[in-house]
Amino acid sequence: MKAFMAWLVCATLLLASLLPSASALAEKKENAESESGKLKSAIVIEQDTGKVLYKKNENKKLPPASMTKVMTLLLIFKAIKSHQISLNDKVEVSEHAASMGGSQVFLEPGEAMTVDEMLKAICIASANDASVAMAEHLAGSEKAFVARMNQEAQKLGMSQTHFVNPTGLPTKNHYTSAHDMAVMARALLNYPQVLQYTSKYEDYLRENTDKKFWLVNTNKLIKSYPGADGLKTGFTNEAKYCLTATAKRNGMRVVAVVMGAPTPKERNKEISGLMNQAFASYETKALVKKNKTVAIAKVRKGDHDEVPIVTEKPVVVLLKKGERSSGLKKSVKLNGTLKAPIKSGTVVGYYIVKKKGKVVSKTPLMVKENVKRASWWQLFKRSAGTILTH
């Protein structure tokens, strides 16, 4: 009996040594929770309305690493839209651009690629050399391009942002916040052409040469998260793992930013969870289409008396799942009397939607066509016609 008891005690002790203790399990759980909470900052925004759906330290100034390239891309696509450059333009690579370290596509000094190829390199492979080459092509120098980046940041109201380069390579005084990243991402998404690049998981440069280069998207959510089609990853030792992501489901697009995640796995897990929560909790309802005429405004001293006023974007309201859209009050508010000349696309007011007295949607309204200043003869005939009718 004593021998059996001794054997039982030994077996119990051996089993206890093999199994984790309650305190060890608790410690493991605590570590997992702690790991999940290591994000320095985060934000989730609905694209059309700009409503913030989640935030954590969203105004904290942090290094953005390669997420900087969201602003670089914004300026490139603005230049394309204004016809300053085209996708087929050739961009010659300087020695300075070719010398960039970090993520690169190994451009050589004197090599020329099209803007289209440079965009592939930036959007898919996060190429620093291509980013600087494009900066020099657009502004003449990297320094001049960075000045434009900071000017654009000011225009967008990004008060927690300052850029020193177009790449995100580590340097002093180069910072942004999760909130400001979301603002510039929303601005970039006004150029949906960018998604043709950021949604590609792989592509090639120099495809028909012996220097064929395989591009693989640094944003793995493109392949693993339903609806994901952009935008930009980032990593440096100081910034840790960052991501500005966007996804669209059932007509609703969200922009999510995480900064300072300890691992790429944790970064992707956190941002996926945040977007899942947004899609599970909210939905959007479109009320008016983009470019829809909602008013006719009179123009003083114009070559024609009236001009159509249209929506710059779709008029959208954000609703909690199950919430009804009834009881909405819609109105058109113009900034004042229009006076020629006016350029097409000039914002002149807002389409405002209220619910229970609270503004739930505010969409810019713009002039649909150019209005030139009337000639003296047009003004004379108009005045004469007015006199004769009275």
TrEMBL record:
Leader sequence residues: 1-26
Reported function: Removes C-terminal D-alanyl residues from sugar-peptide cell wall precursors.
Name under which the protein is recorded: serine-type D-Ala-D-Ala carboxypeptidase
Molecular function via GO: carboxypeptidase activity
Matches recorded under Pfam families: PBP5_C (PF07943), Peptidase_S11 (PF00768)
Native species: Sporolactobacillus mangiferae
Occurrences of domain Peptidase S11 D-Ala-D-Ala carboxypeptidase A C-terminal (ranges): 282-373
Known catalytic reactions: Preferential cleavage: (Ac)2-L-Lys-D-Ala-|-D-Ala. Also transpeptidation of peptidyl-alanyl moieties that are N-acyl substituents of D-alanine
SUPFAM superfamilies associated with the record: beta-lactamase/transpeptidase-like (SSF56601), Penicillin-binding protein associated domain (SSF69189)
Keywords assigned by UniProt, alphabetized: Carboxypeptidase, Cell shape, Cell wall biogenesis/degradation, Hydrolase, Peptidoglycan synthesis, Protease, Signal
Metabolic or biological pathway, per its Swiss-Prot or TrEMBL entry: Cell wall biogenesis; peptidoglycan biosynthesis
Family: Belongs to the peptidase S11 family.
InterPro entries: Beta-lactam/transpept-like, Peniciliin-bd_prot_C_sf, Peptidase_S11, Peptidase_S11_C, Peptidase_S11_C_sf, Peptidase_S11_N
EC number of the protein: 3.4.16.4
